[in-house]
């Protein structure tokens, strides 16, 4: 019997609601398969910040480091500035544990309505490989001056080593898929960092002769993603460009509420962290409207990462089954189900596996 230790951080807003779904599904997995999860639930959130003055305790990263994987809902809530909540929790986790890959799969699922015409979106299945450790998300910068003379500056950092490792990850990913990488750039003479990005991605591509790599300006790529999403196999992008492209891709596939992500630490020290792409969604929080699929698909990525292939595959097919019918889809996908009803449906399918096996 495998015993796996999980750190659960529900966070804020719908993060808490989709974490409830995840817990229900993890319980169904351990009731059905040969695995036990020990779950440490951590109340690290904006609410904790109001209470204690910190998003997480001083030894928070040590606590996480003792687990096999981290599952996170969403962080951020009105009343706490985003730079406080994000630099106080999310970003330190990604950086301390070496989670330099942010992997974000996208698919158009059977039966799911998309804003793009079905003949264009059918068969869409790609992954965004987002650089997760540096780039435009740097700590260097700030605001200087006052009033009409105020200026804000942000220093991007693109190191050869970080671009090389993310490009390598993208090429290797393409080798196990359909063999095409599109590199998002903006190197047309304006952004200096992007010429380094291009040069390094080109060098890495040479080492992968079976992969075709095309370099595309991100503005044109965004348009292509809407017009021809099924052309994409693997997208490699910097931290900010990957962030924007992944919300766009999720919307093209029907809703930001279905997109999952894995913050992977391929070279350690780990652990890796899994979380939906979406945020805390203050506009729908507390109403049972949140789509839990982005979180549940993130659980699939986590189970795969933990080499629990059988429950991962069963959960993925239960997700696909729920997405086929509007009665088991949430409102963002034109459905009528609540967060809890989608979760119940998926959990029941998993528990049925136990009866049939
Ligand atoms: P958001 O993703 O929370 O919401 C954007 C829109 O998408 C909203 O209209 C929301 O209702 C909708 N939406 C999001 N998830 C959904 C779901 N599961 N089901 C149905 N609809 C869903 O983005 P935002 O409004 O820009 O950010 C809100 C807060 O979340 C901010 O504080 C932001 O910093 C934070 N945030 C955190 C993370 C994270 O923890 N990784 C990610 C993104 C945003
Ligand atoms: C995401 C989020 C975060 C990011 C924010 C909240 C810092 O948008 O996980 O996609 O940009 O990485
Ligand atoms: Mn984002």
Automatic annotation (TrEMBL):
Keywords for the protein's UniProt record, in alphabetical order: Manganese, Metal-binding, NAD, Oxidoreductase
Pfam families named among the record's database cross-references: Iso_dh
Presence of keyword Protein transport: no
Cofactors demanded by this protein: Mn(2+); Mg(2+)
GO MF annotation terms: metal ion binding; NAD binding; oxidoreductase activity, acting on the CH-OH group of donors, NAD or NADP as acceptor
Keyword NAD: yes
Residues covered by the Isopropylmalate dehydrogenase-like domain: 5-346
Record-linked PANTHER family: D-MALATE DEHYDROGENASE [DECARBOXYLATING]
Recorded family membership: Belongs to the isocitrate and isopropylmalate dehydrogenases family.
Name by which UniProt lists this protein: Tartrate dehydrogenase/decarboxylase/D-malate dehydrogenase
